[in-house]
């Protein structure tokens, strides 16, 4: 759990250090803007942006029943964030597996990507697709889901 928060925490700390330096130099307005930028970056890289993650085995079982795709992701991945933002509300209709929190998920991604933990990896009908286009992923969501 803590590993997912490392990047957001580091971003906030870096923002605080930089803002403190600007404030001590007599520039409070740029310090506030800089801190806000770092806090926003931390927010979009936090686990809060993504739907609740489940385990790989549970996601596979649910996907088998209803046909929804499974998305393997990790915090801090800009491609995962791009996919999540571009999917909008449809993202909640997918099963999200955080590979940093689920060893089985990480193993599934390595198996699909020749040993690499390349994310996002989307599983549709048992077939892996690495970093697919958001529009394509949206098309794979069954209408009954």
Automatic annotation (TrEMBL):
Highest taxon listed in the record's lineage: Bacteria
Protein name, per record: Glutaredoxin domain-containing protein
CDD domains assigned to the protein according to its UniProt record, in alphabetical order: TRX_superfamily
Keyword Transmembrane among record annotations: yes
Pfam families cross-referenced by the UniProt entry: Glutaredoxin
Chain ranges passing through the membrane: 29-50
UniProt-listed InterPro entries: Glutaredoxin, Thioredoxin-like_sf
Keyword Transmembrane helix assigned: yes
Start and end residues of each Glutaredoxin domain: 70-127
Keywords, comma-separated and alphabetical: Membrane, Transmembrane, Transmembrane helix
SUPFAM superfamilies in alphabetical order: Thioredoxin-like
């Amino acid at each position: 759990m803590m590993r997912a928060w490392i990047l957001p925490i580091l971003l906030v700390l870096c923002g605080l250090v930089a803002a403190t330096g600007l404030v001590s130099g007599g520039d409070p307005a740029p310090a506030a803007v800089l801190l806000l930028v770092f806090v926003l970056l931390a927010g979009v890289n936090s686990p809060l942006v993504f739907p609740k993650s489940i385990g790989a085995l549970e996601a596979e079982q649910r996907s088998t029943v209803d046909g929804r795709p499974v998305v393997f992701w990790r915090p801090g991945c800009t491609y995962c964030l791009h996919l999540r933002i571009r999917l909008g509300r449809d993202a909640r209709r997918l099963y999200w597996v955080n590979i940093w929190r689920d060893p089985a998920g990480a193993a599934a991604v390595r198996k699909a990507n020749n040993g690499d933990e390349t994310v996002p990896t989307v599983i549709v009908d048992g077939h892996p697709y690495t970093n697919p286009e958001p529009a394509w992923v949206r098309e794979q969501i069954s209408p009954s889901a």
